[in-house]
Write a structure and sequence with these properties.
about 500 residues, alpha/beta, Beta-Lactamase, Rossmann fold, Helicase, Ruva Protein, domain 3, five-stranded parallel beta sheet, 16 strands
């Protein structure tokens, strides 16, 4: 039944529909919607839940109980749907839920108000916005066993109408010229934002905005940024504040293993697949089934494994080593890399089709040197954590130490800052952090190489020299370097050495 057809139905409360259409304020819209929901569905209870802008918080905004309508402000009666499986199902799966017989032993209904008589029937409708994303839920419940679903299609359309009207009203509100002041003593501690990250710079605000777009959408995300910018923290934030937060979050660093070990770790293997495979082994794709798999340093994944990963992304199928059968998995992939992946694609070290598949929604993390006052916020945060860990009093910062810290480029970004502060707190015998507590090299520039880059340069030179001496003979080169030939090929691929250059 469409909204227009509803006007011809004898059981539709015409006055309620007229009231809804003429509502010009937030309160009037919410009151009219929950009122008409109770009348159309026939339940004694109707509730409207709305998602906040970050899609992390579900709030009970209006309710009609036994004919009494109440509207709540956006900050009251918060309802975290983490433990509400019925609400979570409708919200995350974007599906209508109709239960003619609620079973207290099977269904958690803590979101329904307490009643002397138990709630017997339930209807839960997801409400989409103009972009098709779920923006709220409309709930109807009855103490009698009945089918509440016949009016579901009409109520979903009316709920969508209200969602869009609320958005229009929000845009029409005049901007505040003076933000409300809060006494410094009562102001809450700066925790950064709703995602548990720290920082309020323009770059981080862009990151928060992008995070809110992908929390409840099962799209592959590519987190890009320099080493130490917090790529894994962003991946965890997406998982822990998204629709899969009750499922596993699995991490694998693709640079930490050679090709053969990484393949068996990701895809698993069957007994007898290779020497030493004395039992079946579950891979990380299976371990993360229903949840999230974070592939760190995806730019270091060997080309042969990139093709297999592409199939998982496209088909959702995994075939363990030694098996002739594939099986489906439901895994959200979040990848991260500090490398310039378009440059790796141009050099032939990364598959172009996989790059475009991964980069459908990139999130770029700003380096610490571009985050302004975030540096001091992070410094104080890490200082408090280090003092708490060492069970010592809080250390204050001297002006000279803050100036010294602010003048450093931090090529290692947040990771380097954290390590510097932990060391400084250990060295500090008093209660004040001073410049001599920080091991900062004033000659260090952002373009200078870090330890990993220097080691890779030395290793690359060594392999190239050995290849030239052996005329490009990889087996002889592997023997001279004391490596298995397979490991040599893996290292050559990682270091960007082709046999033709030997």
């Amino acid at each position: 039944m469409s909204a227009c057809e509803a006007w011809t139905q004898p059981d539709v409360p015409l006055l309620s529909l007229t009231r809804l259409a003429r509502s010009a304020s937030r309160e009037a819209l919410l009151e009219a919607l929950v009122d008409i929901t109770s009348r159309l569905a026939g339940g004694e209870l109707s509730q409207l839940y709305l998602l906040d802008d970050s899609h992390t918080r579900l709030t009970l905004s209006a309710e009609s109980l036994d004919g009494q309508v109440s509207v709540h402000s956006a900050t009251s009666l918060p309802s975290d749907y983490r433990d509400e499986q019925l609400l979570q199902y409708c919200l995350c799966q974007n599906r209508t839920l109709a239960l003619d017989e609620l079973d207290a032993s099977l269904h958690a209904t803590g979101f329904l108000p307490a009643s002397l008589r138990p709630w017997r029937s339930l209807l839960c409708l997801p409400l989409p916005d103009t972009q098709g994303q779920v923006a709220g839920l409309l709930v109807s419940a009855s103490r009698q066993r009945r089918d509440l679903s016949p009016s579901g299609e009409l109520l979903a359309e009316l709920g969508g109408f209200v969602i869009n009207q609320l958005r229009l009203l929000q845009r029409a509100e005049p901007a505040r010229t003076e933000p409300p002041t809060t006494p410094a003593a009562s102001r809450p501690a700066d925790t950064g934002n709703a995602y548990g990250l720290i920082g309020d710079s323009a770059g981080m605000r862009r990151v928060y905005q992008l995070l809110g777009k992908v929390l409840h959408v099962p799209i592959t995300v590519l987190v890009r940024g320099e080493t130490g910018t917090g790529k894994e923290l962003v991946a965890r934030a997406i998982h822990e504040h998204g629709s899969r937060r009750s499922q596993p979050f699995v991490v694998q660093n693709c640079a930490a293993m050679p090709e053969n070990l990484l393949e068996s770790e990701l895809f698993g293997y069957r007994k007898g697949a290779f020497s030493g495979a004395d039992r079946d082994h579950q891979g990380l794709f299976d371990a993360a089934d229903g949840g999230t798999l974070f592939l760190d340093e995806i730019g270091d994944m060997p080309l042969s494994l990139q093709a297999k990963l592409l199939r998982v992304l496209q088909e959702g199928e995994v075939r363990p080593l030694g098996s002739t059968r594939t099986h489906r998995v439901d895994v959200r992939i979040i990848a991260a890399s500090h490398r310039n992946l378009p440059g790796e694609v141009a050099a032939g070290r990364f598959r172009e089709d996989l790059f475009y598949r991964l980069a459908s929604f990139p999130i770029d993390l700003p380096p610490l040197r571009e985050r302004g006052d975030d540096l001091l916020k992070l410094a104080r945060h890490f200082t408090d954590k280090a003092c708490a860990f060492l069970q010592r009093g809080t250390c204050r910062w001297s002006d000279d130490a803050l100036a010294r810290l602010s003048g450093h480029d931090f090529p290692g970004n947040v990771r380097e800052l954290k390590a510097l502060i932990e060391r400084a707190v250990l060295l500090c015998d008093g209660s004040e952090l001073r410049p001599e507590h920080f091991n900062l090299d004033p000659t260090r520039s952002p373009g200078a190489q870090n330890l990993r880059e220097r080691l890779e340069q030395v290793e690359r030179s060594l392999v190239l020299d050995c290849l030239r001496r052996t005329g490009g003979n990889q087996s002889q080169t592997a023997r001279e370097l004391g490596l298995p030939r397979r490991t040599l090929l893996y290292r050559m691929e990682r270091l960007g050495i082709s046999p033709a250059r030997a």
